[in-house]
Amino acid sequence: MAEKRRVFSPDFKRNAIKLSYQKNSTKESAEELGIEMHFIQRWRREHRQFGDGSFCGKGQIRVHPEQKTIYELEQKLKKAELRYEILQNATPHLYNGNEEIYQFIKNSHKKYDLMQMCQVLDVGKKRYNIWKKNGLAEKKRHIIALKKNITKIFLNSNKRCGSRQITSELNQLGCNLKQSKVDFYMRQLKLKRIPKRKFVATTDSFHNHYIATNVLNRNFTVGAPSKVWVSDITYIKTKKRFMYLTVIMDLFDRKIIGWNLSVSMSAENTILPSWKMAAKNRKVLEGMIFHSDRGVQYACKVFSDILDSFGCIRSMSRKWDSNDNAVCESFFSTLKNELVHQKIKLISQRHMRKEIYDFIETWYNRKRIHSYLKYKTIEQFEAENQTIYNSHLEM
Predict the structure, then answer these.
(1) Which of 298, 271, 291, 176 has the alpha carbon at shortest distance from 229?
(2) pLDDT, tens digit, for every residue of 74-93?
(3) How far apart are CA 208 and CA 299, in angstroms?
(4) What is the pTM for the complete model shown?
(5) How many structural domains comprise the chain?
(6) Helix, strand, coil percentages, rounded to 5, for the chain
(7) Same domain flag for 128 and 44
């Protein structure tokens, strides 16, 4: 049977060292204490190196008293660095519910201490062990999945969607939710749209051209395509100068059928290229109302002649009344809140052209849901009303 290993207390070791210096040799003191001589030799070496910190007990690290403060500060720094590392790696999971946090702890248990992770992430070890054994309840899994869908829709819209639009999109997927619940979860997830800003008018109505009457008279509900087109111009600030966006919208489906981004406010660079695109994308019907503000671009003879050649009826807003063209104003508000004002820094003209193209052609005309269309995308609305499009645009 193997001999049981002797264990010496810190006080015994200190007394043995003291005795060894009093005797003529370490051998003599070892014989008196009834231990091997190499024990005393080793203890003396340790004492010369660490002083009173030599014999601190099992599981403790030897540190010289003069270095103790530095050592403690180094340990605190290591703990702070480890805490930061855990938080940094866990951050993508913190706002996605307990399921993801628990899963992160489970996946990281070989890298980090379980108790330390629970303390840093404010998770009860008992709750974690219950989850590990039984999993989450069905209701909690449902809430986690719902939050994931809300976050996905919000991020896919480049943070453009509010709770009303997200609720509508989720309900189309069969969720049957109230807006108040989606709004509550968005606050929990810290998903927030950028607030609206006021805009500056850009209309130059001081000219000698003919001003048409307000034929549209705020009748923005239209029963067929190419019955009423509306247009407006807004400014967008870039790194070096302002750019001007001109749009033409069909009121039937709220689609932007023509647009142009220019650095000049002349008709040749604003409404004329926009009209050319609109006439190419959608048939112009005789008797169609074309509504705009009183700007010189719309009132000039060149554009007036174009409208007359197509047999269009001209209509213009009353002076200083933006509500007469409220649908275009609403589009510009959406554009600036969902795109322009989300930019922290001003971007170049080239970059802005790409951003505007992606917003109008990829997002607004295809993927964005519209309250006017009963929370459908323009593509969905066109598919559901294909008969109306065919009967009017093939005339």
Answers:
(1) 291
(2) 667 777 777 878 778 777 77
(3) 9
(4) 0.54
(5) 4
(6) 55, 10, 35
(7) no
